[in-house]
């Protein structure tokens, strides 16, 4: 029987209960317990305590858990243990809605399964299909994939099929099933959930206590000035700034760079190598500001985000929970600031209704913010020029070594100072 482990993430919180429970007491074998220790996992989280025993019994599961609560481990450990008991290739498939999340899940599977020789393949868009076909021909144990690209391989890659599959896992299942993946997912579902056990450790949309949430009510035309003001005031922190469109991500990134601020973009129109490069620069603290679309709002484990800024308010209220869930993770404190313009009032009221609280106004001094107007206006002008160059470059063939999605600085430009072991091996 194909066992389906469907996980849906909701919010971010750390569990304090059940500290006496161990991975071994949940039924995890010693070699995997040692892997958990090496990763610094001292005790199982709530979703792991609830889901692992049920999964080891072979039950189908629908799990709801907070982001950052260890849900990847909740499905990875049972899959690896069952694979250890019955080694075979093409054993499990994990579907994810974003490329970055796929690579992150692969890293966790490889870390947990390093001592037992687990082989993983990441099959997502933005990467050459031929090289992926070669990886699939080697028959890895675990495939982590986006639905669209996996269907492409099922239809076009000779000899590739999922007939031996034992586990199907949909991570961020609520997002996969609510986006444009319905047709692809239907093609991939070879069996329905059979009397699933519902494992629910998060029942409502709330935010963690250590997250300081606030909002700024500002005229739309001054959003850039207020963004620069907040970044300067809170300089020394790491920031994730969420924008509504890929174009706005590029524009804001260029504007901030023209002001001397270390910003990197992350959006769906970038090549996969550029996306991973930007993410790695931010995670390694080489850059302190990540400007992103909602492609970065879910699932990604970036441990050191101090401040989340909703530059463009999310159109779907639940996306607010996922955005602000990038900070105040694993018991740390964090801050979120949401920009609300005259056009966003209704969307903002829906967010307050969803989280069940009224947010305080973030304190600013308008006169001080307006002092930035001249410098910000000039930076905006340069950003528009560079965006125009990028758009023109897309319309003509790329010269060797060029990348139309790369954001670069112009050759001549003013810069403005701104605050800134042991175990069974698989054959």
UniProtKB/TrEMBL annotation:
Its EC number is 3.6.4.13. Residues 52-215 form the Helicase ATP-binding domain. Residues 210-370 form the Helicase C-terminal domain. Pfam families: DEAD, Helicase_C. One of its GO terms (cellular component) is cytosol. One of its GO terms (molecular function) is RNA helicase activity. It is found in: Nucleus. Residues 388-427 are annotated as: Disordered. The keyword Cell inner membrane does not apply. It comes from the Eukaryota. Residues 21-49 form the DEAD-box RNA helicase Q domain. Keywords: ATP-binding, Helicase, Hydrolase, Nucleotide-binding, Nucleus, RNA-binding. It catalyses: ATP + H2O = ADP + phosphate + H(+). A motif (Q motif) lies at residues 21-49. InterPro entries: DDX47/Rrp3_DEADc, DEAD/DEAH_box_helicase_dom, DEAD_box_RNA_helicase, Helicase_ATP-bd, Helicase_C-like, P-loop_NTPase, RNA-helicase_DEAD-box_CS, RNA_helicase_DEAD_Q_motif. Residues 410-427 have a biased composition (Basic residues). PANTHER family: ATP-DEPENDENT RNA HELICASE RHLE-RELATED, RNA HELICASE. Belongs to the DEAD box helicase family. DDX47/RRP3 subfamily. This is RNA helicase.
